[in-house]
User: Fold these one by one.
Assistant:
Number 1:
Amino acid sequence: MTVFLDPLRTAGRTALDLVYPPCCVLCRGRISHDRMVICDDCRSGLLPIDAPYCERCGQPLDAPVASCPACPGRTFYFDGALSGFQFNRPLQDLIHQLKYRNRPGIGRFLGSLLAKRVEGEPGFPHITAVVPVPLHPLRKRERGYNQSAHIARGISDATGIPVLENVLVRNRNTPTQTSLSPDARMSNVEGVFEAGRVEAVRDATVSLVDDIFTTGATMNSCARVLLKAGAKRVFALTIARA
Ligand SMILES: [Zn+2]
Ligand SMILES: [Zn+2]
């Protein structure tokens, strides 16, 4: 009987390993817990972004003032933004693997770390729904999954707050934003998102989730659509900021 069971078990384990590899995805060292994707040593290399930060955009500040120099004059549709961790070498490597190396489990792991980091943040009120920033269907097919949806699931694992998928729809595949100025980024994503299941977000306090906050253009565009769809408030949560 074991002869027949073993290949099955191996197949099951292989599938599981894609999601939760048994060794650290950064240094290949042993990991202490099944649901971790990195070892304790590498985990200690992930550094939180500590207060103070800008109440509008989440930019870390040297002194506790209400807003960073860039925010006056900007229109943000989200009520606040917070990024969990400094975008240092180990985190860059993790996010790269999450996006380009078929490691969705990293998203879930980082999402649960982010949830623990944000818990008890005074600027963050009671969130009632977690909404991932959607990928265009073509890009999602290429990648096999939406990394932000996995981060959102990690947040939900840690908090029990439901993830609302298909609430936002990305109707246009935008060119990559990396080389664009902040203004060009804003117009690049204008009209790109639409609300799908409008009734799901009515009166909700939404945590909008993405991997990296850069200028806030994508978050802003999504937040605007969510408010139009009836969400009460929107907060932008990201793993890191670049
Ligand atoms: Zn490691
Ligand atoms: Zn700011």
Note: Residues 24, 26-27, 29, 38-39, 41-42 surround zinc ion (ligand 1) (CB under 6 Å).
Number 2:
Amino acid sequence: MEDYLIRVIPKNFNFRAFGVMLTKTVEEVRQLQGLSPIATAALGRAMAGACLLSADLKFGRIFLQIRGDGPLEEILAEATASGALRGMVKNPAVFLPLDSKKLPVGKAVGKKGFINVIKDFGLKDLYQSSIELLTGEIAEDVAYYLTVSEQIPSACALGVLVGKEGEVLQAGGYLIQKLPETIEEEVHYLEEKLSKLPPITTLLSEGLSIERILEQIFGEIEILEKRKIYFCCSCSEGRVERVLIALGERELEEILKEGKPVEVTCEFCKKVYLIPLERIKKLKDLISMKG
Ligand SMILES: [Zn+2]
């Protein structure tokens, strides 16, 4: 089954909701990057979070960065308006023992740190906002970010189910947001409902799709939009060259002195770029021309 993102309104409640299923994409990234189970769970949740945050986008991309004091150190996830998704974790081999049969994502991310959201609408300016981590469990942090930073009271659940061989069995999540017309009783209803709902990983393990899970919360729902989600990396030789140019003239001079072509591996898709010395020389000349 293809991965997808849905935009939903409940028939009988004043909320809006988004749901994502991304099992295939997270498994693809796990295989590409050789992620440990805990890194898979954490990155899968971050990628689901980025997808849900991108649900409103008509153009451009959203970039979710989570930096904590746990052993994973940093997680990046990027989702575009057209459904392309990628992500990476600084330390993909981190191993932590299960904590009451669960992968301790909060521990791996750490509680001290921040969550940073960058929105790139393809215009000149980027919209950027950052807050401190609440739990490091990622779903709570995304909801807290939206509630505090964007003043949209939100509830979020993200789940990645990892099998015995480390393979991704299920990955998905939902985001529910209050609307200006939402009344107090509806908020109470939702809080009560969510507090009684089993953890999302449990629901996913029972084979429930994200639509069914949202129906368990709201009853009848209407799907306004369904967007295909897929792994896609935006790296290119041009981007690698821009990074090299940013290193500056002196650094490139050093590379030329060493006399070895530059090998750059994209951390998202593991593609290797080999930049020959004559190209480095051209890039250096480009800088001195500008300077
Ligand atoms: Zn790449």
Note: The longest strand covers residues 168-178.
Number 3:
Amino acid sequence: MKIALLGYGTVGTGVKDIVKTMNGKIEIVSILVKNKDKYKDDEYFSIITNNFEKVLNSKPDIIVEVMGGIEPALTYTKKAMKENIHVVTANKQLVSQNGPEIIKLAKEKDLAYKFEASVGGAIPIVKSLTDAAKFDRISKIRGILNGTSNYILTKVLEDEIDYSEAIKSAQQLGFAEMDPSSDVDGHDAARKLAILSTIAYGRYVNVNDIDTRSIRDITLEQIKKLSDKGFKIKQLAESYIENDKVFAYVGPAIIDKNDKIHSIDGELNYAEFDALNSSVIGISGKGAGKLPTGSAVIKDILDIINNDINLAEQFLNEEISVHNIDPETKYVKL
Ligand SMILES: NC(=O)c1ccc[n+]([C@@H]2O[C@H](COP(=O)([O-])OP(=O)(O)OC[C@H]3O[C@@H](n4cnc5c(N)ncnc54)[C@H](OP(=O)(O)O)[C@@H]3O)[C@@H](O)[C@H]2O)c1
């Protein structure tokens, strides 16, 4: 199977590293980057390009879109599909915002559009939820879907430091971007929650309708006071469906010590869903990083090799209205 990588950063190089261990089962035929000069000494320099047409000319069976952002990722995804190329992505922003039009095109062309890596890194939550939703009724999703925020809140409590110092530590370790706003203000987790909610409830959940609250203003004193009483503050992502309405929230929440989420610390992610027949199913693991995210991409590629090109057709169904959950009554009384 021939693949091309769009993006050769954290996730792209992770995919490459795993491919190299697979004894030629997968061949990388081209790699798209923005700045080719950065890669002069790279072992794959001869197939690295900044020209998308060259990627198409290399005739991949699958394009792995790990460049991030909406454009040009959207245009390249659509162009690839028009050339009958399957697409695997880790781009939660693109899946949550443009999933409907991309999946519509994939369906018309009988192609795969797979995005396990876009939610929870190595955690196989997209697949588990997709399988469950085929026969079970999912009523609720909860989780820690952003490792950066979870790391910061854990660090504040463990090291008794302020939010700003914890951010610096996260940046030094590569867990946080220079601008961490999409993580700490909840937008990253909201994108993942929208993707999972769409699969779970069978209709398109628009990320722009999800209420997000920041963890920026939580103080060390508040965290310590709650910890003394057996509670932790976490950035929780939660949605549930009731009477054909979805309720959703991403933001700080006080978590009781008997709750599984209480033990999810550091950069770990956790996602659980309530299903009518199977009850609560939860999975935790590394939600980001080169190899954990790369491994999720590889699993999607292997599915395509095995002819599993099932699409998340829930994205094509009518949008369902999303309502806020009042955080003051349900999640936080600081
Ligand atoms: N990092 C994680 O742990 C993680 C986990 C889950 C999902 N994701 C998602 O995976 C995607 C990639 O993340 P990442 O952390 O790997 O990003 P990254 O390290 O910043 O790498 C991005 C890559 O894309 C290339 N690129 C960006 N814009 C481009 C453009 N306009 N044309 C051509 N190439 C372009 C960059 O080229 P240059 O090298 O030349 O700059 C770089 O190689 C994102 O959607 C992210 O949300 C990441």
Note: The pocket of NAP is lined by residues 7-12, 32-35, 38, 66-68, 72, 90-92, 117-118, 121, 288-289, 293 (CB under 6 Å).
